[in-house]
Amino acid sequence: MSKTILLAVTILFSQCLWAVTPIIEIEIRDHLFYPAEITIPADTKVKLVIINTDNAAEEFESYEMNREKVIPAGSKGVVFIGPLRPGEYPFFGEFFPKTAQGKVIVK
Amino acid sequence: MLLNAVIIILREVIEASLLISIFMAFSHKYQLPRRWLGIALPAGLALATLYAVNIATVSQWLDGVGQEVINAGVHIVVYLMLLIFLIFAMTINTDRYKQLLIVIMTIGVTFASIREGSEIILYIHGFIALPELLQPVLLGGAIGAGLGISVGVLFYYLLVHLSLDKGAKLGFILSLCVAGGMILQATQLLSQADWIASQYPLWDTSAWISERSVLGQLLYALIGYEATPTPIQVISYISALSLMLILAALSYRKAQS
To answer: Which of B121, B128, B192 to mutate to test the interface with A (most CBs of A within 10 A)?
Structure first.
């Protein structure tokens, strides 16, 4: 019985370790995304940490990924994306869309 | 930059504008004092400013998803106010619930102004440091706001001039549209915050109506159009609207008997 519990706990624990969400940082500088292209694995949830070093707020937006978030000036914000199927998912800064463009490549 | 500002501000203004037109037309039809708007709008603006000023702090709450959770909460409050409004609007002839309806309309419009208002403030504020862009942004913003308010005024006069029966039907449909949009945005925000599971979309209608197009943007503001909704979003949307229809129908039947 105790062995079964131990096994269950071990499996559960390893599952938790398995499920650690990858973190990717994106910087907004002079109304541009750095990097402007990121590659993530298919069927995986990813945590984007978006750091805005400009002195104007930006809105991270993607129609394809259904994401929309204001990143305050000189601050940062977290956006979870995925799981996604393989393909390209553009994102942009809604407040400065001429320059702030990027995409997530899912492989 | 000008066109971009028009679309951003129009999209933010149109939701609150529609809600106000529904509530104001209702107040007009049932001779309720319309002073509540004079409380709701300044209160909404004050809270929007407070939110915009503290947005960096709020963003860091709850492991970086404070903004999503608060915004989702704001949308859910607006939905609930619309739900209560529809239930009690069905029994208005009893006169007993007029005070309650005024409170509900005030809270609804105040909350509807918070998120949209704060986004407008943050957007415009970013251009104060960029004088060469500030003018087109302000001009575009004024055009967008003007268009958004015009849509609200148009619906207001339409609702007021239709017969009581037809006006009530149109008002009911508009209320459902706004409420559906609130629920769709709330579920999207909670999935972005990883509070509810992210899922694959159920379908993709972006080839027919892209969310990037003007029509897509307008439909987004009017009914919460989403080209690639997830199963949770579709289920929440249908459940939220069904709940409204059922409760409003029950209330209507009770008022008739």
So the answer is: B192
Using an 8 Å Cβ cutoff, are B87 and B249 in contact?
no
Give the number of other Cβ atoms within 10 Å of residue A80's Cβ: 20
The partner residue sitting opposite B200, judged by closest CB among A56, A80, A85, is A85
Query: Interface pTM (ipTM) of the complex?
Result: 0.87
Sign of CA dihedral B157, B158, B162, B167: negative
d(CA B23, CA B110): 12
pLDDT at B130: 85
> pLDDT tens-digit profile of B177-194?
999 999 999 999 999 999
Which residues of B are less than 8 Å from A99 in CB distance?
A: none
pLDDT at A10: 56
3-state SS class at B180:
helix
> Which of B195, B175, B188, B218 is closest to B81 using CA atoms?
B175
Instruction: Quote the DSSP letter at residue A90.
Output: E
Beta strands across the sheet bearing A37-40: A37-40, A101-106, A87-93, A58-62, A67-71
Q: B219 in the Ramachandran plot: left (φ > 0), alpha (ψ -120 to 50) or beta?
A: alpha
Query: Which two structure tokens, joined as six digits, stand for B115?
Result: 């998120």
Q: What is the pTM of this model?
A: 0.91
